[in-house]
Amino acid sequence: MSKWRIGDVTVTKVIELEATGGSRFLLPQATPDAIKPIAWLRPHFADENGRLRMSIHTFLVETPERRIVVDTCLGNDKENRHITTWNNLQTRFLSDIAEAGYPRESIDTVLCTHLHVDHVGWNTMKVGDTWVPTFPNARYLMGRTEYEHWSRVSDRPDMRFILADSVTPIMEAGLADLVETHHRLCPEISLIPTLGHTPGHVSVRISSRGEEALITGDFMHHPCQIAHPEWSTNADTDRDQGIRTRLDMFEKLSGTPTLVIGTHFAGATAGHIVRDGEAYRLDVS
Asked: What is the mean pLDDT of residues 250-271?
């Protein structure tokens, strides 16, 4: 469990799953031979053999007035997932967030940066044969563009299952708020559009007492994309837009004191974007 302080805001990372290797299906250009020369990726983000380290985790964001869950991972008991090992999980996620000081009943806001499988899973939990909201006292914030896009898509059966068990029950419970990509949640927390991975993808800006942080979401999945912004994932809806977003964000962030907190970054998870020759790197020192 890692924790960061940004002014009056606390961000706590709680891990659901971690893995080393096996990520070539997501980032096919990130071969071991391509990763080994990027020395700064070791030890947090890659091993000595050039295999990527990746994490699925949530962020618990506490402001003076709000308790927010940013992205809810994969969830237990879910079925029909395209990665078979993600089916019927039985993790300690709810116990872990409670032990971190955030029992599910204490959460007042759930924010999904987008609606992919590993960002909405714990929106719901199974009680008997029914999917019910995991965080009964929370409003669930989802992007309007994001929701409308996936609700119309007919060629992604995996998304149909994801919506059915992790999104539609929230809608039916009357707990969902569809928001725009520049939405402000509270004085310290706002959204910024980082499009490409999905049509309505957002990142989360934290600003408090002159300090800044950014929770990335999936506009980049792994720090190797900081060194190679042109590397796209197989999960990107619009690869060209995703590349433009990374280049734009790295230019804006490089050399600034903004703490970049990676939604799938293992190990140190957070650091600062700095120039590295003609590219960039993540400084975790």
From this structure: 98
Buried b (16+ CB within 10 A) or exposed e, 134-170: bbeebbbbbbebbbebbeeeeeeeebebbbebbbebb
- CA-based nearest residue to 167, from 178, 156, 157: 178
Lateral strand order in the sheet of 184-186: 184-186, 189-193, 202-208, 211-215, 259-261, 270-276, 279-283
Q: Is 95 helix (H, G, I), strand (E, B) or coil?
A: helix
CA 115 to chain centre: 10
E runs forming strands in 84-168: 109-111, 124-127, 130-133, 139-143
pTM for this predicted structure: 0.97
Q: What is the largest CA-CA distance in the chain?
A: 56
Question: What domains does the chain contain, in order, with CATH numbers?
Answer: 2-283 (3.60.15.10)
User: Are 205 and 191 spatial neighbours (Cβ–Cβ below 8 Å)?
Assistant: yes
The half-sphere exposure of 13 on its side-chain side, counting CA atoms within 13 A, is: 22
The Cα 100–Cα 144 span in angstroms is: 31
Quick one: pLDDT at residue 12?
98
Q: How many C-alpha atoms does 49 have within 13 Å on its Cβ side?
A: 5
Phi and psi torsions of 169, nearest 5°: -60, -30
Cβ-Cβ contacts under 8 Å for 216 (sequence gap 6 or more): 194, 203, 260, 261, 262, 263, 265
Rounded Cα distance between 61 and 107, Å, is 10
Which sign, positive or negative, has the C-alpha torsion 62, 66, 70, 75? positive
Does residue 122 come out as left (phi exceeding 0), alpha (psi in the -120 to 50 range) or beta?
alpha
Q: In this predicted structure, what is the pLDDT of residue 47? A: 97
